[in-house]
Amino acid sequence: MRFLGVSVHYSNMKHICDHDLERYHLGMVKDESELAPLEEHLLACPKCAERADESADYVDAIRAAIITGNFDL
Questions:
Q1: 73 lies in a domain?
Q2: 33 in a domain, yes or no?
Q3: 20: closest CA among 51, 46, 60, 43?
Q4: Which end of the chain is more exposed for a tag (fewer CB within 10 A), N or C?
Q5: DSSP bridge partners of 13
Q6: Using DSSP, how many helices (H) and how many strands (E) does the chain show?
Q7: DSSP string, 27-57
Q8: Which domain range does residue 56 map to?
């Protein structure tokens, strides 16, 4: 799991990088040794949970544009 820069917050946790949030939403994080800490972090970190929602919205918008052919995002 990659983390964003040196952004450390309560409990000495670092924030999850956008790439891993996108991989998580796409179901590409399959290894339990990576998946479990990522999900635990999302439960404990409101900022990363919010960014995960934003990442999911972005990925879904790109998918929808590809399906409908509406590339004018």
A1: no
A2: yes
A3: 51
A4: C
A5: 9
A6: 3, 2
A7: T----HHHHHHHHHHHHH-HHHHHHHHHHHH
A8: 3-68
